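User: Please predict the structure of the protein below. I'd like the answer in structure-token form so I can feed it into my own downstream comparison script.

Assistant: Understood. Taking the following sequence of 358 residues as input:
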Amino acid sequence: MAILAFLGAAAPSLIIALVAGGLIGVVVWVLTSRRGTSRKWSLGLIVGAVVALVIFGAFAFSQAYTPVQYGTVAVVVRFGGLTGQVFEPGLHWRTPFIDEVRVIPTVVLSYETSDEPTQANANYTDIPVTAQTVDGQQITIKYTVLFRVPPDKAVTIVQNVGFTDRVVENVIKAYSRNQSRLLAQNYTAANLYGGQGIFDYENKVREALIVNYAEFGLVLDDFLVRKVEFSQDYITAVEQKQIAQEGIETAKYKSEAAEYEKEQQIRLAEADAQRIKLTAAADAERIKVTAQADAEKQRLLADAEAYSIKARGEALKQYPGLIQWQFVSNLQNVQWGILPSEGITPLVPIPSFEGTTP
């Protein structure tokens, strides 16, 4: 059976080789017959056989020589079934005419949805996904799926799904469009319009696709939401709401600014009152200290005066004549005085009036 299968697979190449060899043999036979060479038929037959063998060998060599480009692997197909062999990048040999190789890319491939799929640069393109949010808003989702086929899973993927085109159509496209549409129903339009909600939605779809693709042996490198579009009515409503909100924020800001200014004036007035209060307290304290100092000064002067009087009193007790001395000492410009006739010694010389006519 194997020989028959080999002959069946090699039949086209064998026929081409025999035809070419026969033609060459006929040419040789014609050329030798003109020269009268003996055994001309045998020479033509030999040359034709050799040429046929060379041509068939060339076909067989080309079928056995199998280079595999980087970024790809090749699976071996024999009689319509997979042998389980996977050729890594490099040079490989296979059974000619019987074994076929099918190349599968293992680099990262992209599947992208856009408004104009024919102008996109992704490996595989499609139209956007339409969905509906939990609050009933119609949205259009544009995204990119980055995926790859692991070399060690190539045989399993081809056996269960098919080659790359079938993988994209039956797995990448089917699950990404389904999950992006279903999971959008868990979010409001406001969540997907902007903010953290769009990142949460992207992560949820990515996590779901990782599980879906892993069931077939595929690897999801990333799921990227490029844009979520809304109806024009919704966009207009959001813009009007935003304008109104900005007006409210502006009014609130002005109100807060006026309140701040009011509080600032109150704080300034309180500061002025406190300053006046502190100044008055300082003045009162200064006056108090000054009064206390003056009182203390008067007290000290009074004490000094009292002490002086007391000292003079003590001196008069001991020296009674001292008062007469002080009296006389305080007299100024006195030219005469009346004294008792007895018992008193004049302290002040009285000028004589001799030679003067009374």
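That's the full token string. The first strand starts at residue 65 and ends at 68.
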